[in-house]
Amino acid sequence: MPLLPSLNPRIIDALHAQALDLADKVRTRFDRLRNETNQIVADDEDLQRVQVSCEALRTTTRVMHCLAWLLNHRAHFAGELSELQLRRHGRLIANFPDSDPEVVANLPQDVQALVHDSQRLYQRIQRLEQAWRSEAVANGSAVQRLRDRLARAVEDHPSAA
User: Fold this and answer.
1) Which domains, from first to last, does the chain contain?
2) Do 31 and 23 touch, CB atoms closer than 8 A?
3) CA 104 – CA 82 distance, rounded (Å)
4) Is the C-alpha dihedral spanning 74, 127, 29, 38 positive or negative?
């Protein structure tokens, strides 16, 4: 498995800018697509409208979850959240539902690209979170580190025990 860079403010800020840009593009393009879909008159128009709306919601929500995760990490780096608060409340949803490939295949090419971009961003953030959480487990919890320090202190000064 390749080594991942440790999280730092520059990585978080770059991903945040990317996610904001993607969120804006997704919102704008899906709004336009909904307007285009509303002008379609066909037997399956209701189904198509619902599919477009569902995919718009799914894609937008996926990007918003990424933004929330990134904002929590930005707050941590700015000193507004402790590491404990971040670990407790800054989780990315582990099993966010994927887009339906058949529905995505029926969308215009540029919209398909936005859906795929949102999936790649989500997967990237998932990998960063997994690496970040694994690093914490490898380094031990704060309680375990404190116990280790106390044990070393007692070993260094056996008469104090």
Assistant:
1) 9-160 (1.10.8.930)
2) no
3) 40
4) negative
15 burial class (0-12, 13-18, 19+ CB within 10 angstroms)?
Answer: buried
Enter the pTM of the model: 0.79
- Please answer whether residues 136 and 84 qualify as being in contact, where contact means their C-beta atoms are separated by less than 8 angstroms: no
d(CA 108, CA 152): 63
Pick from 43, 47, 52: nearest CA to 111: 52
Helices (H), the chain: 9-38, 45-77, 83-89, 101-105, 109-139, 142-156
Instruction: Divide the 161 residues of the chain into consecutive groups of 10 and give the mean pLDDT of each group.
Output: 66 97 97 81 75 95 97 95 90 88 95 97 93 73 71 73 52
Q: What is the pLDDT of residue 1?
A: 38
